[in-house]
Specification:
The termini are far apart. This protein is α/β, with parallel strands linked by helices. It holds the Pfam family GFO_IDH_MocA.
Length: 323
């Protein structure tokens, strides 16, 4: 994979710290706004990125780039992904993918027509611990309660209270805690249990944006409560509870550093299967394999998963608007 990066925010910095752990990944180019060019040049020098652009079109027309990593603010995802597909590039798009199922379907059709692959970058469903939890659900089944918590006091929250609004807190730029943090909980729940029958969102609103909130997802035989907050501090704890026991873990639902299985009858065991320290390494290893092998089956499965998540987000926003 010869990767071109569009964006230079925190997620790009995080990714670049682990890019050398991903085999067959070449950092070919980075494009940012004119204002962010000093940042892009510093990143290029530090991580050996060959080309630096202040114009996305230049990156998209670089024949050396075969895949584009879209890491721009949420409200720009659709347009940038569409441009990349039109240029014949494979696309890795940061979460949340796009705003609606219709947009996702349109981009998928365009990608299929051009013979390129698109995937959503979401860490947790590519982690080894996630796959292990999915395998171990049978040990505690039938499952009736899921309680996931991703609380992380935002480094930008104090500025937000003072009136300095970053994109993640800007409703005009598709910000908010639902799409920034609770989306990890949604991906995890949909990945483990599929689409719910009903979705309701109860946000804490400040200055027109949800700074925290509780999302409920109803299944025929279980209930899921998904908590996320950028305006609170705690050590988050998550539980999956069944008749035969429970699975639990502390910390970010985007990382899942380890997890505990507590059977109703038996010994408690703690597991750690993640192979890499950085939460983004496993997903990019998967993406390189999918794109280099043109594995359309796996890409299509991931697309269906992303569409289900987009549908949950849409239902959540609709429910909050109707309250």
């Amino acid at each position: 994979m010869k990767l071109g990066i569009i964006g230079s925010g925190m997620i790009v910095h995080d990714f670049l710290t682990t890019a050398d752990q991903v085999k067959n990944l070449e950092l070919t180019a980075i494009s940012t706004t004119q204002r962010s060019q000093p940042v892009a040049r510093d990143l290029a020098q530090q991580y050996g990125i060959k080309e630096v652009y202040a114009d996305n079109e230049q990156l998209l027309h670089n024949p050396e780039v075969d895949t584009v990593y879209v890491a721009v603010p949420n409200f720009l995802h659709y347009d940038v992904v569409k441009q990349a597909i039109a240029a014949g590039k494979n696309v890795i798009c940061e979460k949340p993918y796009v705003e609606s199922v219709a947009e996702a379907q349109e981009l998928k059709q365009l990608a299929d027509d051009r013979g390129v692959i698109i995937v959503e970058a979401i860490t947790n469903i590519h982690l080894e611990n996630y796959r292990a939890i999915k395998h171990m659900l049978a040990k505690i089944a039938p499952i009736h309660i899921i309680s996931l918590n991703y609380t992380q006091y935002s480094s930008r929250y104090d500025d937000f209270l003072a009136g300095k609004i970053a994109p993640v807190f800007d409703p005009a730029k598709d910000g908010g805690t639902l799409k920034d943090l609770n989306i990890y909980n949604i991906h995890l729940t949909v990945g483990l249990f599929g689409k719910p029958e009903a979705v309701h969102y109860y946000p804490v609103m400040q200055q027109g944006i949800d700074t925290s909130g509780i999302l409920t997802m109803t299944y025929p035989d279980k209930q899921a409560v998904l908590i996320a907050a950028k305006d609170c501090y705690t050590t988050p704890r998550s539980f999956i509870e069944g008749e035969q026991g429970s699975i639990s873990f502390d910390g970010s639902t985007g990382v899942i550093k380890d997890f505990t299985v507590e059977p109703r009858n038996g010994d408690i065991d703690k597991f750690r299967f993640n192979q890499y320290q950085n939460r983004m390494t496993s997903e990019f290893i998967d993406f390189v394999n999918i794109i280099d092998e043109h594995d359309t089956k796996t890409a299509d499965d991931l697309y269906e998963h992303s569409v289900n998540v987009i549908d949950v987000l849409a239902q959540a926003e609709a429910s909050a608007a109707n309250k």
